[in-house]
Amino acid sequence: MRTIYKYPLHNNNCLVSMPASGKVIHFDCDLDHQLHVWVEVDTNEAHKERHFVVFGTGQDIPYGMDHVGTAMEHTSLGTHVWHLYERGAP
Questions:
Q1: DSSP 8-state code for residue 60
Q2: 78: confidence class by pLDDT, cuts 50, 70, 90
Q3: How far is it, in rounded angstroms, from Cα 18 to Cα 7?
Q4: Is the pLDDT confidence value at 30 over 80?
Q5: Cα gap 36→49, rounded to integer Å
Q6: Is the pLDDT of residue 40 over 90?
Q7: How are strands ordered across the β-sheet holding 23-29?
Q8: How far apart, in whole angstroms, are the C-alpha atoms of residue 82 and residue 57?
Q9: Residue 37: strand pairing partners
Q10: Within a 10 A sphere around the Cβ of 89, how many other Cβ atoms?
Q11: pLDDT over threshold 80, residue 22
Q12: Which band of pLDDT confidence, cut at 50, 70 and 90, is reported for residue 5?
């Protein structure tokens, strides 16, 4: 069976355990300014760790990373634009 799960990104460079063929469908910031990724998953699949890295606009991005999505975070200090990449995407 397939469903959508929400995974928090606890830092800007993290491993997330999820069903192996999970398809990222959304990347955004919640009201508490926590970045999350929403993934369509097959709940019957075994999990694997996937490596996600968040970059700000203007930061250098190493080769070998695939763009997953972009999110805007609105704060009292202004708007930040975050770009989510995955190393070794499936």
A1: -
A2: confident
A3: 9
A4: yes
A5: 16
A6: yes
A7: 2-8, 35-42, 23-29
A8: 7
A9: 7, 27
A10: 14
A11: yes
A12: very high
Per the confidence metrics, is the pTM higher than 0.85?
yes
Secondary structure class of 58 (helix, strand, coil): coil
DSSP secondary structure letter of residue 43: T
Look at strands 78-87 and 2-8 and give their pairing. Answer: unpaired
Q: Which two tokens stand for residue 87?
A: 């190393």
In sequence order, the 6+-apart residues with CB closer than 8 A to the CB of 12 are 53, 54, 55
Q: Are 59 and 86 in contact (CB under 8 A)?
A: no
Convert 17-30 to b/e letters by CB count within 10 Å (16 or more is b): ebbeebebeebbbe
Q: Residue 57 pairs with which residues in a beta bridge?
A: none
Label residue 90 by pLDDT band (50, 70, 90): low
Would you state the structure tokens that stand for residue 71, as one six-digit string?
Answer: 């999110």
